[in-house]
């Protein structure tokens, strides 16, 4: 918690609360106003105090004591608001929460008034001592209280370049040299390359370059990447490698069971990257035997800070040196400037070079400083201020933490600082999910309200700014930046700055937790065989956040839970929890409760007392089949996650949860449920704040009209029917059932704000009218992601080419589709550009699809495309999987001028792939038994062919650099390519049979 942000938040709540009648009826209004005045007197010293507490023990003690007061104040105000909710509505202030139970006059109870009054007066006395403390306050400077705002404009996005860290020739030369060694034939079955260097120097960047190199992809059919880290779990690591190699470990849970499975799954040549290894025993004691005894040969790449770790694994060592000045400046420019800012870049080069020198050649430090400079004015004064900041030389930092990282932290607003610090509670190298992180921040009160802007939107802006500042790194696989990681050095910085307010501990450190320390946040990971929370944790009665992860046997009993009465966040994901005790209802401050992937069988009715609860997550709880009626009383609930949990129904009254923003797993009730229990679609009409909605078992619905009419803010919508395999498909496809499904789906008609639409297992006779409309583009001008999954009975696809913002499209399991033609482009409308922004297109498991045309009629050739002057101008990736009846690719595909990668798997009747002049990077062809010819791909660089026994011709691939042939093929290598057609630039051929 950052003191000035916390005090500011408390003062805002106080100002609202003292204006209401609750404070008067409690007879605490005067005491609360006195508290306000004293907080106002010290506000100006707080920002300076946070910085100086690391350098002066008196200030550190002063800050710690003031934080204790503020935490207590927050708890007291929370209790007052909860009690105020029991008043009749006319007596409530705008700040109180709702209450589900009959109101009763708590405030006539002298005992309660006496207790709450005494606690507030005690706060005032403690605060008075703080204000009068002459040991700390005189050392602090009073600063202007103009609140620093976020540097990111609301709703602004920042494209993250996958290779934006690669500059100069140093890393490219290193990559090519290492790849040369890896791919060459070697008698040694399994050998190791160790990439060694200090933290933040670019070990992972180099390893990633190697892992994604085309020759590595070509030579190693099995590629696996795992992060090991300090507190690794042997079982989890073995499972990750098996899963990464497309294996299945089934029910195996021990080393003895998993090691043979690992050896057997590595049946083809493999490369495994073990990122961030701290101990050689990972190889010697765990992985050496299964990898050396695997059927195929392989290569192991490890990254480590410790050269001894590499040498102890008998690795060939590659040491990474610091960046030189030119490369460092290039990296800084790449992260700060846009392409059209060359003049500003030149003007600031002299100062920029000095800043780079202060970063001491560490890429991580340069990127962190770039994140600071990116959001500042492009002036010499601003850059000189950064260069001259005393944050570079913060004396209390651990030696391995560059001053540049502390400077990047100091540049954050107070609100953003506490959000950054919270990220350190995740395990090292852990994937961070944006939606989870946003809900954590909200539960802790870290997000400052701004007008009518949704708190979740503000929190997402915080998340984007941390990414923009290079303090979090997004996973490039997800275009919406919904997942990220935190570099271990930045995590170490955050843990250091959090001090004794928070801790992240592994199993071996849990029992050493100091019971005298007032921990506010505790994250426990890899608890191994821990069966219950240790005594050292139970004594931490001030905890506001408790997260237990990767601890499948850990449990928490009723008495332990009752001791943690100040909790705001309780996350027991993947623990051995089987039941939730009644005492959960006593956690009145609780905002976030996560029981994902636990064995919980039921929830107690007492959960309805959690009137502050904002997030309830019950995803993938396989033993949970019903929810208590009390769920409908949680009227401050903003996020309810029930995905993959086999609920028979939801209790009637979910529509009363009018603050819901996120609802995944809205199960529609059926005839087997009592009329007063199950929910139908009309419950959604009152949930007008929804941004994310997933509806399951839609075939059960009795009505669909107007269900989404009020959901004008909806952005992501998942519409799901029961998979045919789960029940008798023939009976479900009776004519009356189909007509019912058609009507319900037609009536749903989502709002125009929609950005993401997922259609799953729809068995109607055709897509709904709102999706088949010729004005589709006008109806959904923001739709960017669309998935049509297993819609078996729809004979024609919608005119999706009309959607102006569509970037991602996947269609799978559309069994009734025999032909795809110009209807997909929207040929009845006046189309200027079909699919103007589409970047990724996947057509999967289309078993009856035979013909593909991109024209107005059946004709092909130059006249084929008459409905659109441009076609797929931004398409980068095209994937065709398991389309066995497809005869040919459309001629019009050659007009996709930005096509980079084409993957074709299981197109059994496809005879040729030709005339794709813009296809530049990769062509992967698997399991296409009738393919005879690959030709006229003049820009293609990489070609991989596997199990295509009839292939005879590969010609006119002028730019081809790498050719990989796997298993039977009539073409055996470049000597088989017709004379005059073998590309001069061909560098490498792999031929494996």
Automatic annotation (TrEMBL):
Residues 561-846 form the Disease resistance R13L4/SHOC-2-like LRR domain. One of its GO terms (molecular function) is ATP binding. Gene3D superfamilies: 1.20.5.4130, Helical domain of apoptotic protease-activating factors, P-loop containing nucleotide triphosphate hydrolases, Ribonuclease Inhibitor, Winged helix-like DNA-binding domain superfamily/Winged helix DNA-binding domain. Residues 173-340 form the NB-ARC domain. The keyword Transmembrane does not apply. Keywords: ATP-binding, Leucine-rich repeat, Nucleotide-binding, Plant defense, Repeat. PANTHER family: DISEASE RESISTANCE PROTEIN RGA4 (PTHR36766:SF70), PLANT BROAD-SPECTRUM MILDEW RESISTANCE PROTEIN RPW8 (PTHR36766). This is Disease resistance protein RGA3. The lineage of its organism: Eukaryota, Viridiplantae, Streptophyta, Embryophyta, Tracheophyta. The gene is LOC105037510.
């Amino acid at each position: 918690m950052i003191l000035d942000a916390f005090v500011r938040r408390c003062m805002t709540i106080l100002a609202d609360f003292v204006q209401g009648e609750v404070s008067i009826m409690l007879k605490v209004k005067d005491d609360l106003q006195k508290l306000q005045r004293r907080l106002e007197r010290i506000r100006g010293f707080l920002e300076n105090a946070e910085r100086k507490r690391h350098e002066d023990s008196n200030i550190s003690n002063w800050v710690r004591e003031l934080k204790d007061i503020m935490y207590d104040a927050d708890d007291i105000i929370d209790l007052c608001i909860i009690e105020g909710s029991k008043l009749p509505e006319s007596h409530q202030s705008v700040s109180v929460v709702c209450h589900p139970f009959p109101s009763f006059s708590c405030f006539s109870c002298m005992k309660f008034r006496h207790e709450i009054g005494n606690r507030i007066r005690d706060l005032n006395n403690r605060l008075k001592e703080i204000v009068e403390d002459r040991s700390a306050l005189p050392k602090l400077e009073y600063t202007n209280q103009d609140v620093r705002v976020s540097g990111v404009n609301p709703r602004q996005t920042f494209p993250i370049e996958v290779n934006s860290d690669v500059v100069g020739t140093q890393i490219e030369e290193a990559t090519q040299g290492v790849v040369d060694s890896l791919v060459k034939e070697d008698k040694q079955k399994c050998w190791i390359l160790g990439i060694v260097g200090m933290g933040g120097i670019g070990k992972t960047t180099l390893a990633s370059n190697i892992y994604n190199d085309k020759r590595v992809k070509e030579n190693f059919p099995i590629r696996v990447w795992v992060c090991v880290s300090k507190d690794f779990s042997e079982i989890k690591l073995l499972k990750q490698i098996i899963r990464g190699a497309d294996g299945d470990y089934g029910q195996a849970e021990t080393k003895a069971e998993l090691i043979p499975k690992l050896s057997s799954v590595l049946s083809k040549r493999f490369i495994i990257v073990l990122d961030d290894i701290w101990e050689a025993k990972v190889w010697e004691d765990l992985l050496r035997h299964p990898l050396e005894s695997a059927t195929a040969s392989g290569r192991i790449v490890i990254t480590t800070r410790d050269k001894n770790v590499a040498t102890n694994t008998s690795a060939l060592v590659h040491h990474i040196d610091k960046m030189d000045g030119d490369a460092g400046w290039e990296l800084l420019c790449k992260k700060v400037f846009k392409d059209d800012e060359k003049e500003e870049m030149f003007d600031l080069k002299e100062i920029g070079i000095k800043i780079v020198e202060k970063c001491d050649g560490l890429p991580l430090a340069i990127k962190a400083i770039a994140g600071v400079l990116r959001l500042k004015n492009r002036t010499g004064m601003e850059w000189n201020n950064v260069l001259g900041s005393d944050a570079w030389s913060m004396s209390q930092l651990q030696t391995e933490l560059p001053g540049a990282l502390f400077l990047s932290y100091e540049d954050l607003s107070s609100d953003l600082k506490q959000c950054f610090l919270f990220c350190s509670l995740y395990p090292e190298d852990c994937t961070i999910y944006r939606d989870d992180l946003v809900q954590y921040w909200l539960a802790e009160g870290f997000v400052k309200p701004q007008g009518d802007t949704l708190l979740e939107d503000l929190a997402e802006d915080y998340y984007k700014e941390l990414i923009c500042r290079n303090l979090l790194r997004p996973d490039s696989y997800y275009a919406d930046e919904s997942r990220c990681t935190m570099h271990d050095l930045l995590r170490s910085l955050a843990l250091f700055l959090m001090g004794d307010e928070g801790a992240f501990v592994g199993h071996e450190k849990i029992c050493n937790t100091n019971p005298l320390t007032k921990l506010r946040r505790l994250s426990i990971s890899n608890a191994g065989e821990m069966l219950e929370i240790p005594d050292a944790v139970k004594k931490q009665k001030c905890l506001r956040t408790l997260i237990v992860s990767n601890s499948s046997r850990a449990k928490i009993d009723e008495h332990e839970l009752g001791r943690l009465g100040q909790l705001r966040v309780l996350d027991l994901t993947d623990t051995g929890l089987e039941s939730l005790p009644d005492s959960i209802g006593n956690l009145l401050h609780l905002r976030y409760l996560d029981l994902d992937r636990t064995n919980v069988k039921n929830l107690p009715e007492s959960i309805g007392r959690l009137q502050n609860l904002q997030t309830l997550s019950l995803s993938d709880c396989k033993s949970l089949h019903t929810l208590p009626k009390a769920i409908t009383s949680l009227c401050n609930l903003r996020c309810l996650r029930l995905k993959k949990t086999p609920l028979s129904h939801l209790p009637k009254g979910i529509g009363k949860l009018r603050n819901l923003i996120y609802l995944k797993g809205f199960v529609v009730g059926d005839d087997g449920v009592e009329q007063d229990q199950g929910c139908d679609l009309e419950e959604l009409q009152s949930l007008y704040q929804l941004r994310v909605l997933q509806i399951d078992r839609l075939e059960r619905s009795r009505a669909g009209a107007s269900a989404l009419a009020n959901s004008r803010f909806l952005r992501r919508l998942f519409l799901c029917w029961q998979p045919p395999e789960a029940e008798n498909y023939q009976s479900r496809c009776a004519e009356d059932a189909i007509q019912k499904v058609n009507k319900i789906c037609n009536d749903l008609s989502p709002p125009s704000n929609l950005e993401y639409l997922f259609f799953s297992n729809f068995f109607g006779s055709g897509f709904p009218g709102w999706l088949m409309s010729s004005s589709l583009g006008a109806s959904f001008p923001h739709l960017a992601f669309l998935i049509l999954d297993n819609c078996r009975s729809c004979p024609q696809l919608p005119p999706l080419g009309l959607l102006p913002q569509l970037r991602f499209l996947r269609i799978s399991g559309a069994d009734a589709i025999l032909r795809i033609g110009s209807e997909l482009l929207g040929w009845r409308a006046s189309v200027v550009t079909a699919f103007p922004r589409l970047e990724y297109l996947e057509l999967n498991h289309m078993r009856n699809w035979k013909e593909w045309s991109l024209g107005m009629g059946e004709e092909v050739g130059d006249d084929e495309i008459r409905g659109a002057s441009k076609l797929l101008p931004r398409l980068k990736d095209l994937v065709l999987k398991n389309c066995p009846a497809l005869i040919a690719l459309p001629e019009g595909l050659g007009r996709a001028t930005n096509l980079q990668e084409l993957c074709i798997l299981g197109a059994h009747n496809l005879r040729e792939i030709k005339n794709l002049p813009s296809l530049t990077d990769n062509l992967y062809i698997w399991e296409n038994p009738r393919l005879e010819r690959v030709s006229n791909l003049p820009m293609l660089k990489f070609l991989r062919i596997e199990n295509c026994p009839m292939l005879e011709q590969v010609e006119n691939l002028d730019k081809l650099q790498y050719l990989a042939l796997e298993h039977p093929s009539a073409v055996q290598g470049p000597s088989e390519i017709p004379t005059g057609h073998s590309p001069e630039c061909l560098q490498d051929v792999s031929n494996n049979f």
